[in-house]
Automatic annotation (TrEMBL):
Name of the protein this chain belongs to: RNA polymerase sigma factor (Sigma-70 family)
GO molecular function: DNA-binding transcription factor activity
Annotated segments matching region Disordered: 339-391
Ranges for domain Asl1-like glycosyl hydrolase catalytic: 411-626
Residue intervals of the RNA polymerase sigma-70 region domain: 30-95
InterPro entries: ASL1, Asl1_glyco_hydro_catalytic, GH, RNA_pol_sigma-70_dom, RNA_pol_sigma70_r2, RNA_pol_sigma_r2
Length: 632
């Protein structure tokens, strides 16, 4: 089932009733809230085929045209998903069989919906494997996959899945079990094919294969993985797909995808309905391109659209055509063209230096007091930058560089880390927390270099990634007694992803530590959001909360920011990053089980568009926001 944030984003029965009565805002809200859902149903069912946008267009047009005939507004979502699936099946009936299709009619496996899912949601590890494995399913199962994926993500419930298929509940359950078995087999195939160096027998088997995922080849390769001792390892440690997909976001709707298609298709449909341009404007005489703001997964999917609403997704002409269809169907809608200039809400910044006391659960850093405000004196120079907000939780990560000490003093952090056991000469009152980065740093002579004291110590850095600490759970557990011997308060290894997953790297490490009687005092984790809209703050909150709920330990967020690491790293605008810095800091201050958090990173030279200070030592827009953030 969906959580409260997702449930709140879904249009309720009252909104559907208002839309049926011709309320322009309610109609806008329906489109804004449900276009991402329809796009994900159709896109995954057709595996990103070029016809996807046409089928989505037809689904939305049919929704608006039939809205007045909907007898049970409470079942609007179920009704809309059933329309989408009907359009998918209709498309399959109208298109020629794949064997007779021209090459251009076959989706490029490198640019299909699985690829979009990986890129847009920044999937990695086993979540990425699940997305890649969907390419190998039988074509007849793709529609069911689309529905089950959304059910696992909390976007649909089983009753809605059953209604969309048109089958009885027992039959649907059997088909889902069969499809999940195929998906698990495909995950093992994906793993075996990605292993380096490749198994020689597997290389010989695939010598005549064209590289396209196909059910026949899935069966052949799966048979090999079961019989081959080396490739058989691909079946181990598979986390249940439902757990991996829980809470997964919707793939965002491409802002430019529907502009041309909807303009042509909807305008043509309006003309066929005999509606003139004047009639299309409705009783208000104008046409809207604006959408009411949405929250949750739907809002995140719409966030990248230029202008913040339908102006970025549907041009005025296609919206006019859609309205024309609604009028022709007997639902009068009057709307106005505009661009929504609203920006993501941000927490208020402090106008003067403020010290926020730590929560009861926070590790305290030493008393800090607000400096007395001197009497203002006339000055001809530029106004001084507002002093920041310092809290016991607020920190930052950095590597050594010439301006680090000055930036640490200015950013109002109470502590910092360097991913090593050596600090950067920070000003008084800013605590250095050393990190045992990997196996080499856990050597006895290296551990002896850690400055004396009884402060906290951070464990291995992203041991689940080959490019970072690259440790198996067993290797980390074997080294752990060396860290506990320091006597310091000890943080867990910080995995790159999946800290909340049953069977994930951190879950297995903490279970092993408990079995061996090893001490772990708090959980350290990293989080990077690929959703650049306002929903990112709540996504971080849910992740941190899920980690705490699973292990019952205090939490340190030792790296976080908004970055999409799929392919070449992509960053939000400075305004989006700054809004997230303010909102996330305020949220983390309010969570009693979060002891500390550290932004990535202090210098913009090392962190692209997440950096807080430029090469000249001046705070970036993000740096200014983080400096003043921290008011819970």
């Amino acid at each position: 089932m969906a959580d409260d944030a997702t449930r709140a984003a879904r249009t309720d029965e009252a909104t559907v009733r208002a839309a049926r009565a011709g309320d322009q805002r309610a109609v806008d809200t329906l489109v804004a809230a449900y276009l991402p859902l329809v796009y994900n149903v159709v896109g995954r069912a057709l595996q990103g085929h070029p016809d996807t946008d046409d089928v989505v267009q037809e689904t939305m047009l049919r929704m608006l045209r039939g809205l007045g005939e909907l007898r049970e507004p409470a079942r609007f979502r179920s009704w809309l998903v059933a329309i989408a699936m009907h359009q998918v099946r209709d498309r399959h009936r109208r298109r020629p069989p794949l064997a007779d299709a021209v090459p251009e009619d076959v989706a490029d496996p490198g640019a299909d919906f699985a690829d979009l899912t990986i890129l847009q949601l920044g999937l990695s590890g086993q979540r990425r494997e699940v997305a890649e494995a969907t390419r190998w399913l039988d074509p007849d199962d793709r529609g069911l996959l689309a529905l089950w994926w959304l059910e696992a993500a909390g976007q649909l419930d089983r009753d809605e899945v059953v209604a969309a298929t048109g089958l009885d509940r027992a039959h649907v359950a059997v088909r889902i079990q069969r499809m999940k078995a195929q998906l698990e087999t495909a995950r093992a195939v994906v793993r075996a094919l990605r292993a380096t160096p490749r198994c020689l027998d597997l290389a010989a088997l695939t010598a005549g294969w064209d590289g396209r995922p196909q059910p026949l080849w899935r069966k052949r390769l799966a048979r090999h993985t079961r019989d081959c001792p080396r490739c058989g390892r691909a079946w181990s440690d598979l986390v249940a797909a439902e757990r991996l997909l829980a809470g997964a976001a919707l793939v965002p709707v491409p802002a430019g995808l529907f502009t041309g298609k909807l303009a042509v298709g909807a305008a043509g449909a309006a003309a066929a309905a005999g509606t003139t341009g004047a009639a299309a404007t409705g009783t208000a005489g104008t046409v809207t391109a604006g959408l009411a703001p949405a929250t949750g997964a739907g809002a995140g999917a719409l966030a990248p659209a230029a202008g913040g609403g339908a102006a970025g997704l549907l041009a005025a002409k296609p919206v006019a055509a859609l309205v024309a269809l609604v009028v022709a169907a007997g639902v009068a809608v009057g709307v106005a063209t505009h661009r929504d200039e609203r920006r993501p809400a941000t927490a208020p910044t402090a106008a003067a230096s403020t010290v926020v006391p730590p929560t009861a659960a926070a590790t305290t850093v030493g008393p800090t007091t607000a400096a007395p405000s001197p009497t203002a004196a006339p000055t001809s120079g530029p106004p001084a930058a507002p002093a920041g907000v310092r809290t016991a939780k607020k920190g930052v990560s950095t590597t050594p560089y010439p301006g680090a000490a000055g930036a640490l003093a200015d950013v109002s952090a109470s502590w910092y880390l360097t991913w090593s056991t050596e600090g950067v000469g920070a000003p008084a009152g800013v605590e250095f927390v050393p990190t045992v980065w990997g196996a080499a740093e856990a050597a006895p002579d290296r551990l002896r270099r850690i400055p004396g004291g009884s402060g906290p110590l951070l464990g291995f850095n992203e041991p689940d990634l080959p490019a970072q600490a690259n440790l198996t759970v067993e290797q980390a557990l074997d080294l752990w007694p060396r860290l506990t011997a320091t006597g310091r308060r000890l943080g867990s290894p910080a995995p790159a992803t999946g800290a909340d997953l049953a069977g994930g790297w951190l879950d297995r490490f903490l279970a092993g530590a408990k079995a061996r009687g090893y001490r772990v005092d708090f959980v350290a984790l990293h989080w990077y959001g690929s959703d650049f809209g306002p929903a990112a703050v709540d996504q971080l909150r849910r992740y941190v909360t899920a980690v705490h709920d699973r292990y019952g330990l205090p939490v340190w967020v030792t790296e976080y920011a908004l970055v999409n690491f799929a392919g070449t790293p992509r960053y939000p605008t400075a305004e989006q990053q700054a809004a997230f810095a303010r909102g996330s800091a305020a949220m983390l201050e309010r969570l009693p089980f979060v002891e500390r958090y550290a932004w990535f990173a202090l210098s913009s030279r090392e962190s692209g568009d997440t950096g807080l200070y430029g090469p000249d030592g001046t705070a970036t827009a993000v740096g200014a926001a983080y400096r003043e953030a921290g008011q819970g």
